[in-house]
Amino acid sequence: MPALSNTRTGEPLRYGRMGFVNVAPIETAFDAGAVARDVVEVSDVPTRLNAMLVAGELDVAAISAAHYLAHRDELALLGDCCIASDGPVRSVLLVSPIPPALLEGASIAVTAQSASGRALLATLLEHVQHVRPTYDVVDDALGAARAGRPALIIGDDALVARGACPPAQIHDLGEAWSRWTGLPFVFAVWAVRRDVARRRPAEVAALAAALAEARAWGTAHRDAVIEAAIARKPFHRGLYADYFTRLRYVLDERAQRGLARFADLFLPKEPARVPR
Ligand SMILES: C=C(O[C@@H]1C=C(C(=O)O)C=C[C@H]1O)C(=O)O
Question: Hey, which pathway is this one from (predicted)?
């Protein structure tokens, strides 16, 4: 029987790296050469990595937690790395000149980069605010917000929006989730294709161990992580110190409960509401 191409030994795993500054506490250790891993790396926005992993163009990747939940038959968690918040997240925002409770029938510009943030926004608006707006997927959600439209913005653009938009218009979705549920919200997980995990268990285990080691290095070398973040996006040192302290990178028991709660709320709506 001919070997499938990715069963060949010697081919590094194809790794999808989140193209946001929020992964600096994990990825800086690799960039600095403090921790090694044998991968071919692709960096992109979450929705691209989501699609590439399920299409088999990547073997492992940091992806939207919502996408993982919707594809658990094909994907498994890679170790216990995640990106979560327990309270304000800072970088997943609804920016709206209209109060959220008055968004019934409004059109919200949602970034094409997001799956978790989109599903979370729809969940919060439906269950907490009891409104059903329409969602318009756009490439430039930050531009839409600056033009005065209600908009969902994530990642580095959301950090920009915090400084560029009126504070009264900024609604932090991590904060809203925790206020409602008392639980953390998990935005991203590291996931592996189940077929790859079956065929290449040793390499997958080694990569999971390297990620955990890189995360520990990032905790112990916070100044280096902040310098790397500043080199990528020149925000104030204090902003990053605060941001990386608030974000949670371990899928611990409470984060797992938050993820399970979110799955119960939004998976029944699948596939209509799970952004691809
Ligand atoms: C915390 C964040 O969460 C991100 C939000 C994602 C989504 O909405 O699908 C995916 C990955 C995370 O990096 C962020 O945008 O900074």
Answer: Quinol/quinone metabolism; menaquinone biosynthesis
ipTM of this predicted structure = 0.98
Query: For atom 3 of ligand 1, which residue has the closest CA?
Result: 187
The boundaries of every CATH 3.40.190.10 domain in the chain are: 5-85+185-258, 92-181
**Which numbered atom of ligand 1 lies nearest the CA of 115?**
9
Q: Which residues line ligand 1 (CB under 6 A)?
A: 18, 20, 22, 46, 64, 83, 89, 91-92, 114-117, 154-155, 187-188
Fold of 5-85+185-258: D-Maltodextrin-Binding Protein; domain 2 (3.40.190)
Provide the residue-wise pLDDT of the chain in tens; the chain has 276 residues: 444 444 445 799 999 999 999 999 999 999 999 999 999 999 999 999 999 999 999 999 999 999 999 999 999 999 999 999 999 999 999 999 999 999 999 999 999 999 999 999 999 999 999 999 999 999 999 999 999 999 999 999 999 999 999 999 999 999 999 999 999 999 999 999 999 999 999 999 999 999 999 999 999 999 999 999 999 999 999 999 999 999 999 999 999 999 999 999 988 765 444 444
DSSP collapsed to 3 states, 141-185: HHHHHHCCCCEEEEHHHHHHHHHHCCHHHEEEHHHHHHHHHCCCE
3-class DSSP state of 44: strand
Instruction: Show the CA angle centred on residue 144, arms to residues 138 and 146, nearest 5°.
Output: 155
